[in-house]
Amino acid sequence: MALRIEYIIVLFIVLTILFSLSFNTEKEKEVTAGVATKDLQFQDTIFREVDKNSTISSAFAVQGIQIDNTLKLKNIKFSNSDIKYIVGNAGTYKGDIITLKGDVKMLATNGFYCETQSASYDKNKKILDILKPFSARMDKNRLLGDTLRYLFDEKMISVENPQATIFTTE
Questions:
Q1: Strand residues in 21-132 grouped as ranges (E)
Q2: Whole-structure pTM value
């Protein structure tokens, strides 16, 4: 009879431990499920993408954090072979897409200059998308519109509701 009581006590202890472990794990999952955690925090940082011979692109941020594979940045400046600079008050960098917000200014290496409040640039596809009203200029030419898409490789711009002043040579 004593042997059976020992088995019952051991079984009771094992079940109690398993129950308490599963209860704590479920509670921890509930607490952390909706809360993003910081993976990385940095200040005054330059990110450079390089190949064997040269720098492909460069990004500078005054302050930023990485949360779930997304860099959230303040006062960002990005440049590459097509863009001399694109700056904004805040931005995100996820994968190959940089999204900028607040006083966004961009100067392309060909002289095309643009200002807006929000823009995104896909550095692999080399496409600039502006979904807010913007103003742009190149040399004496001026362009205003509601949205803009600039395909850098094709050197093609498409604009919604354009207002343009274009100077031509005779």
A1: 40-50, 55-67, 70-80, 83-94, 97-108, 113-122, 127-130
A2: 0.72
